[in-house]
Amino acid sequence: MNKGARSWGAEIAAVGMTVILFWIPFYFIIVNAMKNTKESSLLNLAWPSSIHLWDNIKQVVAARDYMLLRAFYNSTVLTVLSILVLVFICAMAGYVMQRRTDKATPWINFLVLSGLIIPPAIVPTIWVLESVGLFKTMTGLVLVEVALGFPFCVLLYKGFMSAIPREIDEAAIVDGCSGVTLFFRIILPLLQPVTATIIVTSSVGIFNDFTNPLYFFPGSKNATVQLTLYNFSSQYVTQWNLLFTNILLITLPPLLLFIFFNKKIVAGMTAGSVKG
What we know:
Blueprint: H1 3-33, H2 37-40, H3 53-99, H4 105-117, H5 122-131, H6 138-161, H7 166-174, H8 179-190, H9 192-207, H10 211-216, H11 240-260, H12 262-270
Helix pairs in contact: 1-11, 3-6, 3-9, 3-11, 4-6, 6-9, 7-8, 9-11, 9-12
Protein name: Binding-protein-dependent transport systems inner membrane component
GO biological process, one term: transmembrane transport
InterPro entries: MetI-like, MetI-like_sf
């Protein structure tokens, strides 16, 4: 088999997997979001006999005293604050870890890498947050999201930083720049590609997070978008048309963000991979 045939085979396989894993489930959500209660309970891919999407949207938005609007606000605040802290902290940590070489460096790298391996402990984390008065607060949830995203973001910044020559640092220091001025005025602007990657990938993950808000930010007034799915699903009755409409509404913002910035994501993930 020649290279051209193998290339076509790989592309067809990739397209097929994309259709099966993404487009068919997404079509399933859209179709059932347009149905009435009776038709959506069949849970099939059939096109609805009549379109009820707008009526379903109005019911979803108005449910439980417009809980979805509060959830969008909470998720947006959580995402923006978490991303700001992540970018600020992880960029500095990645810069120091890449530039610093001493006996402590391997241990620091090990501790950061262990954050990707060791699973989070829910009960001890709740105990710590309660001890410092941050349980059921937005600040506490932001700190949890930052702690969980810290290892991945630091490693991305560190890998990208390896492509920035040390001569830039030395020239800035010779010109009289302090460490803070060097980082914020020279290094940080050069990190825009990987920063864009972190903003998009982390935003999607935090915005769609279900587990952490459920455990660390309980309460109907504190609900985030993923927790609103409970509004239409219970032990005995599930309103499938409203549930799928809710899923569609909370899926569109991160989906559009990912589609518009996918090139920046690829650029940021691959930058720095040549020079280690």
